[in-house]
Amino acid sequence: MTTVAKNYDVAIIGAGTAGLAALHEVRKRTDNFVIINAGPYGTTCARVGCMPSKALIEAANAFERRKVLDAFGVRGAASLSVDTTAVMRRVRELRDYFVRELRATTDKLGERSVAGTARFVEPDVLAVNGALCRARTIVIATGSKPVLPPEWAALPDRILTSDTLFDLESLPARIAVIGMGVVGAEIAQALARLGVHVTGYSAGQRVAGLADPVVNEQAAKLLAAEFDLVTCERAQLHSEGSGVRVTAGDKSMVVDKVLAALGRRPNLDGLGLEHIGVTLDAHGLPPFARNTMQIADLPIYIAGDVSEGLPVLHEASDEGYIAGQNAVRPAPICFSRRVPLAIVFTDPNVASVGARFDSLDAAKIHIGMVDFSRQGRARMAQENRGVLRVYAARETGRLLGAEMCAPRAENIAHLLALAIQQELTVQELLRLPFYHPVFEEGLRTALRDVVRQLGPLATRQPGDLANCDPVQKPTS
After folding, report:
1. Tens digit of pLDDT for each residue in 441-451?
2. CA nearest 349: which of 411, 415, 416, 407?
3. Side-chain-side CA neighbours of residue 194 (13 Å)
């Protein structure tokens, strides 16, 4: 007996950030859609990513603040203690609240929301829970999952990932964090501040996703002041008693748990992409255009972590928007993408904006720098640590990018992202208001450092204030 496929205008696979963004656009133009989701609802960000991790970080930073209170004349901080069980309970309560808010979107859809695994049978046909559905266009937004080396499967009860960490009712006494990228750096510092003995491991020299060697050196130094940091060594794991022995180079220690922070890989297994008629790359990804999110010339779009783009929420949301818009159009249209912006919520923050240091030709740029150790507002707040470096084109002075490990970098990075997207020069940004005393004055110091290097170009342009027309004298 032949199974008759149910017909839709659009089928969306995945109800994460990208899938929900696509759904928001699709619903504006058609009610004949279906969204199919395998696994938990509530988005990676809300369940296991940016939201619970920031709740943990806020608690850790609040407790860490006790160490500087004496400098402000506030006494008695040494008697403060942290209840990590209460910390983790609050993290879960906040997480569950955010998840409930997001689940409400799909819960209201009735039969247009299907819990199940989708698999391509043909480029326009999906098999879902033993039934078939045919769609004029399909959006793939299946998200990603943590990378785990196969050999670590022998230690399932001792290996944590960001998908399982926040379910802990209490924290272990000793933990190894393998991988010092964005997630590893954030969580390692937070756990150390909450009293866990942390050892972080990085196979290379870079930490927190940084490319600029000067900024990276500063970030690694500041992190190493808070927990043991082993770089340029690959960690090997072996079961030992109720714990795990971690060996890296000539260093070896036993910990209670290991947090694997080795990145995430797209959820493509079992999706049946081999049936859509395109050649997949070494990672199992089909070819797609970043400005349309279209796969080859097919009526199929891909969005979010599954596309292996920058794994941040606003990028996933943008990709879902593009995919959702194009899924209901007769033909896809191109969309401009935002200036790259990434923020790591360590303390000080780490951030990169625009062009990264390793993508630029050193002979064609000027680099401006500020050291926050002497910056006025940072000293007042006892946050005077870190550096910021901005990159500008030698020929024009146009801002190209920046990397920083600096206090309040989450705010400074947004200001720079706006300036870079507007294609401002260093001097055009200097003409905008900088209040006193604020952390952003550190950015002004770095910009002025660039101006000093511009030479003849700087003399052909006005300084911090633009010139106006000559003042006309009143006539009698």
Report:
1. 999 999 999 99
2. 407
3. 24
